[in-house]
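Known limitations

Files may contain more than one protein. Parsers should not assume a single record per file. Below, a two-record file is shown to illustrate correct handling: read the sequence, read the token line, then continue until end of file.
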Amino acid sequence: MLTFFAILLLLATLMVFRVPIAFAMGIAGTAGLAAQLGMRPALAVLERTFFDTSASFILVAIPLFILMAELLTAGDVTRRAIIACQRWIGHVKGGLAIATVAASVILAALVGSSTASTAAMAASAFPEMRAHRYSDRLAAAVVSVGGTLAVVVPPSIVLVVYGVLTETSIGKLFIAGIVPGFLTAAGLALVIKIIAQTTDQAPKGDPFELKGALRQSVHVIPMVVLLLAVIGAIYGGLASPSEAAALGVMGSLIIVMLQRTLSFVQFGTSISRAIRATVMIVAIVACSAIFSNYLAFTRITHGMLEFVATTEMPRELIMAIIILVLLVMGMFMDQLAILSLAMPLAFPTAMAMGYDPVWFGIVVTKTVEIGLLTPPLGLNAYVAAAQTRVPLGTIFRGILPFLGMEIVVLVLLLSFPQITLFLPELMMSR
């Protein structure tokens, strides 16, 4: 047990000194295996684990979905989606902010990364809201919370990583994330409407023009068709997530080529950015598996399962403790770090209590999403502050009412699992 605490101290020390989470977990896991088994067996486990994890076929979905997002973003498709949403509902009081949330849903389905979505919205939607005399507090907060939708709305990279770490069907996770994603967006829109009606932070936008709205929507239709095709292929059982991701890359490349919005240089940059992001994620997944193997050899996971089996605590209380721990972790870590650290213990515990792995994945993802908004880290708030030059304290104050709605949605998902599970169950019954 002393060795275990020493390894945890090593991991914490590496993280304090800002060692990337993948390397921190890999070093700590390797040191733990060496202390537990000896150096030669530890290296053998390290070699097998790293190869087996990184060679997993399902990981192919990660670079493909990232590349799809990079191509559409570089091809100016995402900016056009934002403009189209603003043209349709920007004329009502608070409409520009609601349009930003609607555009964030589309962007979430394109980008799959919350920080990238926040940065894109900050660059395009925030100046528009500021030009129409929206308060900086509300405009920057909307940009921050809108970006978190990319964590839940498929094809979410966080859901892919959760599926790989826990061996849960990524196709079912994608389908399960649809309703919670739209429920979250509806809740955010409701908060905006209340703020617009009770304060002067969100005035009306430009008058509605049907011709202009239709003209802008023409550019978005191919993108929406592509997204429906990708998700529909998974839902209908016509393609695996990796195959659907390949379909998405091909479709996005055709769209930007037909619209002539992607240069050869931008194409190369998109591939380069996708490769860098993929290497980071695969390294996290592989090093997480090394640390998980160390936990397995220490029998810590087995001890947790025995505790759950013998304790008289209600399973709802144990789940509440897990959620609380994840929320606290979200105040200091990014979403992939949380998954890689917490799932080796939290997932077996939840399964031992009889919870559905797909439902648990959406709940965990929603909890991680909330962590992107909570101080002191609040990664999305930092991204928005860097892009908009709005003080960080102002953004966090603006986020507070949205944070309350996020908690309400999380409680609904915990209380009514069918919100999450009814679409995957329909998928299975087909």
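...continuing to the second record:
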Amino acid sequence: MNRTPGNRVVSLKDFGRAGTVGIAAALVLTSCTPDGGESEELVWAIGGPEAQTGGLHEGIVELWNEQNPDTPVRIEALPEGAGQREQHSLVLQAEGDDFDILAVDVVWTGEYAENGWVESLEGVRDEIEAVSLAGPLESAQWGGELWAAPYNSNGAMLVYRTDLVDTPPTTWDELCEVALQVQDETDIGGLTAQGARYEGLVVNWLEYFWSAGGELYNEDQTEVAFDVELATEVLEWMAEANESGCFVPGFNTAQEDDARNEFQQGNAVFQRNWPYVYALLEEDGGEASENFEIAPLPTFTGEGTISALGGYNNAVSAFSNNKEAATDFVVWLSTDEEVQRTLAEVGSVPPTMASVYDDLADDPVMSLLGDILEEARSRPPSPAWPEISVEMQRLIFEAYNGDMDPQRAAEGIRDVLESHL
């Protein structure tokens, strides 16, 4: 199987600009090889709006199919997030061959590997490792072995009002000081982020905890390295930020779009969110549209920045009938420069290929992401992460809302981590 780009009849950039539906209609996906034989179709099980007809991933599949008519790929569009994982697990637990390629959230790696659902990619590690950012590559590994190929990533950033803040804060304490000062002079709230009781809260808390020097596990995840005292201090800081008004009213019910809307309506000085909000604020940012900028997230030390990684990697199903071709496809998604540039340029989706960020340095979001992703951290790709996260959500939420003593909550987090080693 040829993994190098062949002659392109239609470029992915043109696909995005001309409109995905129109181009897709113009391309004919045949089920036969050039000599009239039957082709061997691969199924890529991936969720989210870009997996739907006319979406970004369809354009990428069309390019592959032109270059590889003997092994065309078809997208099986799944629900987003937990719904996608549920559909995967229903098929994989039955050892079904319905799916050849699995789009795997960065925190599912360990679970899929431990369950025997995916093939090891150690045999193609060198190709993938040579072009991938370190953070996304780490998220695709479990037990020191590569189980998936990085595809798209994500990193959090701070959005701030330039008409209210001269320079972005470099520490979380400074952010609260500025937020409260602005409130004294206006009726605008402080920080909006993801404070509801769901996975997003754990992600936000980890960014605070990591930025204070905390860790969950040691490097190979064989021991808990959780500092209860440090975790207590971070939870106490959150509780104080919530009580003082540094966090906007309604912080404890907000998810991603709630935070975007709050900032967009002019009700917050700061917003912690993902890069997707930038274009939406530019297009229809209300009061904030002409007065916002982006910066790295603060830390407690004032040094550097730390973001939790988001994104998806691609794995080969252990039950695929054509693992070799499926492996070629996932490697191509990671290592083909046109594919990776298209994620950024057409879909505004952060790629995992390091060189793309150098090429797109003039784009403010991609330029900032190039710095953020160098220091971004993956949540542990543990098989038990879904259970760990649910307990952490409860403990963090109760502690910062004043319903549990922060030290007791921190001790609870340590106990949860130790119970799932």
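Parsers that stop after the first record will miss the second one. For reference, the second record is described as follows. Residues 1-37 have pLDDT under 50 and may be disordered.
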